[in-house]
Amino acid sequence: MDEEWIDQPKKYFKYSELLTNAKEKVERCKACLAIAEDELKIVTAKLSLRIRRTPKKFFGDDSKPTEAAIDNRIRVHPLFAKAKAVIYKNTEDLISANKKVSTYYSAVHTLDHRKAALERLVSLFGQNYFSTPKTDEFSKETVEDFSNKYKKKRRQKAKKKKE
């Protein structure tokens, strides 16, 4: 039990530090995701301007394209797809980082429970809860007598069955 007490703060510190690092990574992932979303907005705006300035290049006729047609052209453009892929990757990284935070939080919470359990064990140990029973000579003789009587009865029953 004393070894567990010595080990407890080391484990708690280790997992608390891992939890802190995981939370920091979540914040970095959130920042990267925000940057990627801003980049998508920039790409969308640039493509929209380019399509509006040169509709013939994208639609091939002299008619004025509708908003829905422009939005559709933007969504199928490779630059838009690339920006969306970056957002997807950053979202996956954020989900993974949040999962690590949850795991490390659980570990720290478990170590809190472990500490409380160790405290209770120490308290019980201090109250001689785990002590071994002590008998005096009279009790030992009584137990031996009872044991011998029980063995004798079993032998007698065994003889009767053989006969």
- Measured by DSSP, the beta-strand proportion falls in under 5%
Number of domains: 2
- Distance between the first and last residues' Cα: 56 Å
Helix-residue proportion:
over 70%
Q: Report the count of strand segments.
A: 0
Radius of gyration: 38 Å
> What can be said about the biggest beta sheet?
none
Which structural class matches the secondary elements? mainly alpha
CATH class assignment of the largest domain: Mainly Alpha
User: Given the structure, what is the number of helices?
Assistant: 5
Structural features, described:
- This protein is mostly helical.
- The protein has five helices and no strands.
- α1 packs across α3.
- The longest helix is centred in the N-terminal third of the chain and has 52 residues, at 2-53.
Key features of this structure:
Helix Hairpins; mainly alpha; single chain; 2 domains; about 85% helix; elongated
Question: Could you give the topology of this structure?
Answer:
Elements: H1 2-53, H2 55-59, H3 67-76, H4 78-126, H5 137-162
Helix pairs in contact: 1-3, 1-4
Tell me briefly what this model is.
With 163 residues, the chain is mainly α.
